[in-house]
């Protein structure tokens, strides 16, 4: 539905806007510890109040959006750049040993959740933003590989692919000029959905201490720091939790809207109605 696309685009746009504005302006220094204004209520100089260290909550949310988008872009980029070519190779040779090998390795990677992979990498290389990005990216590769393989197999039986083969085009040329442009819409939708998953994974990793390290603000760590004051000052958990929920909702709605808009089958169904 068009409404999903619009609502998703608005929520994603607000998240991106907050992240971009945080590069040049925030109401206060999000890392400044000010004991004199510890747990200040919302209003006045502090729009959403301050945390237990006296840091401005609104400023932390703005910079936290930047951190979240950064992790999401890199993680989804890793997954798309690795998973898409592997899926296309598997889809162009569906009955060969290479396709079987790719998909079995894909299943093996799919068995390791991003959280578990991040814990393993963090134990070896140390917890941090880079570790979180790599873990989330690697864990998302199977999703892109499966989507790319299924879409490629559909494209490979079309008449224009047969014509390209008859004209003597090689596999690389066919993949670049015919397959990739025709599966691009599915990959865009998958990227939007994977971005929502990456936001949740980054927040969970930061909450557990395996994500973004202090003093860089992170929505997940804001939740972790607020849990000991959950009953006395619940607003400390409300704002980052609401930010995570709206960002995830935005990317999910954007993905659904893009799927409805880009899928020709769904467009024909709506036209017939």
TrEMBL record:
<keyword id="KW-0812">Transmembrane</keyword>
<feature type="transmembrane region" description="Helical">
    <location>
        <begin position="69"/>
        <end position="93"/>
    </location>
</feature>
<dbReference type="Pfam" id="PF00528">
    <property type="entry name" value="BPD_transp_1"/>
</dbReference>
<feature type="transmembrane region" description="Helical">
    <location>
        <begin position="130"/>
        <end position="148"/>
    </location>
</feature>
<keyword id="KW-1003">Cell membrane</keyword>
<feature type="transmembrane region" description="Helical">
    <location>
        <begin position="5"/>
        <end position="25"/>
    </location>
</feature>
<protein>
    <submittedName>
        <fullName>ABC transporter permease</fullName>
    </submittedName>
</protein>
<dbReference type="InterPro" id="IPR000515">
    <property type="entry name" value="MetI-like"/>
</dbReference>
<keyword id="KW-0813">Transport</keyword>
<feature type="domain" description="ABC transmembrane type-1">
    <location>
        <begin position="65"/>
        <end position="255"/>
    </location>
</feature>
<comment type="similarity">
    <text>Belongs to the binding-protein-dependent transport system permease family.</text>
</comment>
<dbReference type="InterPro" id="IPR035906">
    <property type="entry name" value="MetI-like_sf"/>
</dbReference>
<dbReference type="InterPro" id="IPR050366">
    <property type="entry name" value="BP-dependent_transpt_permease"/>
</dbReference>
<feature type="transmembrane region" description="Helical">
    <location>
        <begin position="105"/>
        <end position="124"/>
    </location>
</feature>
<keyword id="KW-0472">Membrane</keyword>
<feature type="transmembrane region" description="Helical">
    <location>
        <begin position="237"/>
        <end position="258"/>
    </location>
</feature>
<feature type="transmembrane region" description="Helical">
    <location>
        <begin position="187"/>
        <end position="210"/>
    </location>
</feature>
<keyword id="KW-1133">Transmembrane helix</keyword>
């Amino acid at each position: 539905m068009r409404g999903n696309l619009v609502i998703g685009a608005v929520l994603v746009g607000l998240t991106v806007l907050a992240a971009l504005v945080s590069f040049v302006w925030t109401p206060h220094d999000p890392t400044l510890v000010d004991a004199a204004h510890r747990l200040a209520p919302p209003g006045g100089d502090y729009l959403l109040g301050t945390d237990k260290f006296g840091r401005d909550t609104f400023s932390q949310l703005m910079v936290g959006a930047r951190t979240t988008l950064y992790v999401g872009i890199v993680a989804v980029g890793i997954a798309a750049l690795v998973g898409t070519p592997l899926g296309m190779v598997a889809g162009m040779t569906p009955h060969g040993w290479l396709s079987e090998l790719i998909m079995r390795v894909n299943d093996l990677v799919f068995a390791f959740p991003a959280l578990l992979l991040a814990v393993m990498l963090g134990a070896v290389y140390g917890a941090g933003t880079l570790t979180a990005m790599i873990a989330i990216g690697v864990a998302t590769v199977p999703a892109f590989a499966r989507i790319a393989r299924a879409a490629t197999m559909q494209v490979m039986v079309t008449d224009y692919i047969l014509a390209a083969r008859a004209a003597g085009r090689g596999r690389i040329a066919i993949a670049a000029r015919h397959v990739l442009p025709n599966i691009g819409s599915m990959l865009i939708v998958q990227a939007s959905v994977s971005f929502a998953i990456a936001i949740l994974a980054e927040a969970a990793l930061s909450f557990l201490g395996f994500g973004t390290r202090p003093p860089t603000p992170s929505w997940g760590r804001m939740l972790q720091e607020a849990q000991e004051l959950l009953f006395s000052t619940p607003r400390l958990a409300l704002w980052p939790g609401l930010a995570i929920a709206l960002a995830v909702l935005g990317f999910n709605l954007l993905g659904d809207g893009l799927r409805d808009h880009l899928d020709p089958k769904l467009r024909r169904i709506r036209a017939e109605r």
